[in-house]
Amino acid sequence: MPSALIVTFAQSTVLNAISNLLAQLIDQRKNTTPFTLNTLALLQFVTYGILIVPINFYWQRALEARYPGFPSRAEIANLLRSWRSLFSFSALRAFFSSAISSEGSPRMSDDGTALPLHREKEKEKETTGRWAPRAQRSGLHSFVMKFLFDQTVAGAMNIVLFVVLINFLKGETLSKVWELVLVDFRPIMIARLKYRPVVSTLMYTVIPVDRRVVFGSACGVIWGIYLSLYAVV
């Protein structure tokens, strides 16, 4: 039976080819010219996809190993309730009432005298213990961390790799490629942030780790069309 990486290779390659073909069709239809397959552009984009698949495959596995699990339904429901209550008038009134009523009420020492602020903090450390065990991270915490890494580190990595690889495949020099990275990074990142958060939310709540690259490719057919058009198919 083929490994998860091989299956991901095959499925992502097919999806990348489809997105490039659709991009060529859109581009030529827009210019009102008869459709002619640009084989070189297709091979360049498919090759870029093949090179990028293992990087993203192992990146997703590393993220899952570091932040395992999915948020539970209870955690999602509690989060939604917290957001609703956070912006309610009663919650704000309770917060300020609590802050006002607790002001000027220092903690007491063992002999009944008030503790200064710095001694109060020391007392808390003595009570909880320096080596108290850490609470186990929740599935919601894992989701948030994976989501943030996907929007920042993975986003920047994939954009730089796209510009570098696609232009090296076109035969550009190193200095020209670096110039294109500086020019193209910002517009591509802005475009990515318009669709990727939705994909990441689904990816890190219901999609198994070995299926995430394929799921991203399937959701990214439109993104692949955009990249193909950006690369001037």
UniProtKB/TrEMBL annotation:
- For this UniProt entry, which segments traverse the membrane? 39-59, 147-169, 213-232
Where does the UniProt entry say this protein principally localizes? membrane
GO CC annotations?
Answer: peroxisomal membrane
Judging by the UniProt lineage, the source's domain of life is Eukaryota
UniProt entry tagged with the keyword Nucleotide-binding: no
Q: What topology does the record note for this protein and the membrane?
A: Multi-pass membrane protein
Where does the record place Basic and acidic residues bias?
117-128
Subcellular localization is given as: Membrane
Q: What is this protein called?
A: Mpv17 / PMP22 family protein
Phylogenetic classification of the source organism: Eukaryota, Fungi, Dikarya, Ascomycota, Pezizomycotina
